[in-house]
Specification:
Layout (H helix, E strand, L loop, with lengths): L45 E5 L4 H13 L6 E4 L28 H7 L11 E4 L4 E4 L2 H10 L18 H16 L1 H6 L4 H22 L12 H17 L14 H11 L10 H11 L54
Helix pairs in contact: 1-3, 1-7, 4-6, 4-7, 7-8
Length: 343
């Protein structure tokens, strides 16, 4: 999977023997209220390109929904499968994005930097008038949605990165990123046994710590949903479907940790989270694109997804999911998850 700025090869390439390493986004321009990088926040100017399979892109999907940026920032969804040119728009008519007019996301990269040698990654924000990639900085995009795009937020949008809690949020996110978000990849793409076991140990050590933290509190930081919850959720929702088996993170399943399983279900059932998750895309991508790990391309039938809709009882811990705000409205027409991707 050519996740943001990852050194993983594209498509059907066999994975090499170098330790897995994820680099930062090459194109780190920011879209800001004052336009200081040359990209001012402007309704209708930009297009968010995602794969619903990708956990890093899923952060942007959740944030966009919660903040109500659908009218301001249009959405392009790629095919979960890639060819040798990476992310492609084969879900759209004529295999072409109807707004950008391109068949491959790489075309927007080429408009920005001809001959760019790096990987083509999602999430990506593209400037519609010029067709140029603006940013693929997956760590920054959602933080800017929360702090720089406020003039375009919906009425009642939650504060996903509240200033008084930012230091604690950053600390929690750093550990979750290193050991969980990226840790499952370090395990899955490990080139040797010691490297795999170190990553495996980090994943479950951190999950145990997070489980302890969430035992008596509904959310990771404060009493409302924050960016920290979004970032943990996008890994947890994929855990049993792909990371447990495909990436060999198999000490235990998410469903076997009562706290984390209830926490994940609570978020999944919160508007803005589960309604952005496509389990079909997730499984198709991981099992069919990662041929170095799964050379047969067989996609498992399981796991049973019906549990995602069962009662979680986390509301007994209190908390206010949206703080002083309100839930987002219905999913925008045309952006609904197909039935095959839902529990």
């Amino acid at each position: 999977m050519n996740d943001p700025a990852s050194t993983e090869p594209d498509g059907n390439t066999e994975y090499g023997h170098k330790p897995f390493k994820r680099s930062s986004g090459h194109f780190a321009d920011r879209i800001t209220a004052d336009g200081r990088d040359g990209w001012p926040v402007e309704a209708g100017r930009y297009r968010l390109v995602v794969s619903r399979a990708c956990p890093w892109a899923s952060r942007a999907l959740v944030s966009r929904r919660l903040l109500g940026l659908e009218d301001a920032l249009s959405l392009a969804v790629t095919d979960p499968l890639q060819d040798d040119r990476s992310w492609r728009f084969t879900l759209d008519e004529d295999d072409r994005d109807p707004v950008l007019g391109i068949k491959y996301l790489s075309e927007a990269y080429d408009e920005r930097e001809s001959g760019y040698p790096g990987g083509v990654s999602v999430p990506a924000v593209v400037d519609i008038p010029s067709g140029k990639l603006v940013t693929n900085d997956y760590q920054r995009i959602t933080l800017d949605f929360a702090t720089e795009w406020t003039a375009l937020h919906r009425p009642g949008a939650p504060d996903l990165y509240p200033e008084p809690l930012r230091e604690e949020i950053d600390e929690v996110m750093e550990g979750v990123y290193r050991d969980v978000n990226n840790g499952v990849y370090r395990a899955g793409f490990a080139a040797g046994q010691p490297e795999y076991e170190a990553a495996y140990t980090d994943v479950f050590r951190r999950l145990d710590l997070v489980s302890q933290r969430l035992a008596d509190r509904r959310y990771l930081v404060g009493d409302t949903i924050t960016e920290a919850d979004i970032r943990l959720f996008t890994t947890l929702v994929r855990f049993d479907a792909v990371y447990h088996g495909h990436f060999k993170c198999n000490r235990s399943k998410l469903t076997e940790d009562p706290v984390l399983w209830a926490y994940a279900r609570d978020l999944y059932q919160t508007p803005g989270f589960g309604d952005t998750v496509d389990f079909h895309h997730i499984k198709q991508h991981y099992y069919r694109v990662h041929t170095g790990i799964n050379p047969t391309g067989i996609v498992p039938v399981g796991p049973d997804l019906s549990g995602w809709l069962t009662a979680h009882h986390r509301e007994q811990l209190g908390g206010r999911p949206f703080g002083d705000g309100t839930p987002p409205g219905p999913v925008r027409a045309g952006e609904e998850i197909p039935e095959e991707g839902r529990p």
